[in-house]
Amino acid sequence: MCRPNRCLNTLKKSPKDLALLGGPKAFTEPYHVGRPNLGDRKQLMARLNDILDRRWLSNFGHYVQEFEKKIAEISGTKHAIACSNGTVALEIASRALNLHGEVIVPAFTFIATAHALQWQEITPVFADVRAHDHNLDPAQIERHITPKTSGILGVHLWGQACDTEAIEAIAKKRNLQVMYDASHAFGCDAAKGPIGGQGRATVFSFHATKFINAGEGGAVVTNDDELAAKMRLMKNFGFRTYDEVIHVGTNGKMDEFSAALGLTNLESMEEIVAVNRRNRETYRKELEGIPGIRLLEYRPKGRFNYQYVIAEVDKSCAISRDSLVKVLWAENFLARKYFWPGCHRMEPYKSLFPNAYLTLPVTEEVSSKILVLPTGQTVDGEAIRKAAELIRFVVKNGPAIEKELAKKG
Questions:
Q1: Structural domain boundaries of the chain?
Q2: Contact at 8 Å (CB) between 299 and 132?
Q3: Least C-beta-crowded within 10 Å: which of 19, 29, 96, 117?
Q4: pLDDT tens profile 201-232
């Protein structure tokens, strides 16, 4: 919340009043993107005490089993395999599907999507995204398919499903595996039913910054019995019984403490959605009419978690996205430029594929203008109104501010 003395009442009257140029900060404490949402603390402590009383801290304990059951129910799938984090879940799922050679992924995603493949010596082949929702563009997939392609890894960005039907039609035609990274999209809808049952497998993240968090954690959901059994082996070193190892594996298990936090936060899921939705609507109202800035729209119908408030700062804006970020950070409003500059411009991919940008014009454009705004339980209407007032002032005085920033070098 914007507690007393956290939001200052100082109005900016000239560019020199900005904190970056020597003025006081608009916010005395930082507002972060992705500060954890938390459920009932008393309920969490009761669960933690129960874990200590049971002395069962890991290895598929009571709370992990309960957490998996809830995840499967919400995602509409038969199986949920809880993992230590979303990246390990991606690695286990892709290995269980026997992905190899090349796998097509969007270039505009968190770097873990690509790294989870590269870590296993699978080459991520970057495809472009759609301008209206920033998700993988099915029309761009075919051009990247080669004899080495074994699969497609789609990403449901910002809690909006990518076009699973089009992606899976291409995969069926070309005999490719399909899995999804739904790190942003727990509790959201695809075209037909909850996100989770599409493709062979879907991976969720329950990292601290996510809509529902377990501190650290992830899960793979699937309707495939054989695949689920295989992934359960793989996340526990391949053990089938206490002494019998029947498959290569790793240590990808979720611990009981993480599961307890995840379960507690699940109980506040609807409340968190309501807070996120309220915050997004406040941003929409308060930012309306600022030239060159618009919020990314959601589909007219569907269920969303609203965990990400995404603004686009286009070329008509009087100040660049990067300069606006610098100004806001100096004021303690820590807006982020996800996922700049795109996976294809990060290492090792920048060196491996130096010309990838030539086939990624939308990714290049999108990554240059995205602004992710703080939301969640720790952000209230007062903070949003003050941030919007600040953004409006900065845009209005954009040329003068850019000139001052140029002097600073």
A1: 15-32+269-408, 41-266
A2: no
A3: 29
A4: 999 999 999 999 999 999 999 999 999 999 99
Distance CA 360, CA 342 (A): 10
Q: Could you give the C-alpha distances from 325 to 232, 328, 333, in angstroms and in order?
A: 43, 5, 9
Sign of CA dihedral 316, 322, 326, 332: positive
Instruction: Give domain 15-32+269-408's CATH number out of 3.30.230.10, 3.40.50.200, 3.30.450.20, 3.90.1150.10.
Output: 3.90.1150.10
332: phi > 0 → left, psi -120 to 50 → alpha, else beta; which?
Answer: left
Query: What is the strand order of the sheet 123-127 is part of?
Result: 79-83, 218-222, 201-205, 177-181, 149-155, 102-106, 123-127
Token code pair at residue 342: 């795109």
Its pTM surpasses 0.85:
yes
- Note the CATH number of domain 41-266: 3.40.640.10
281 within 8 A of 295, measured Cβ to Cβ: no
Residue-wise pLDDT tens digits, 231-265 = 999 999 889 988 998 899 999 999 999 999 999 99
Q: Inform me whether the pLDDT recorded for 329 exceeds 60.
A: yes
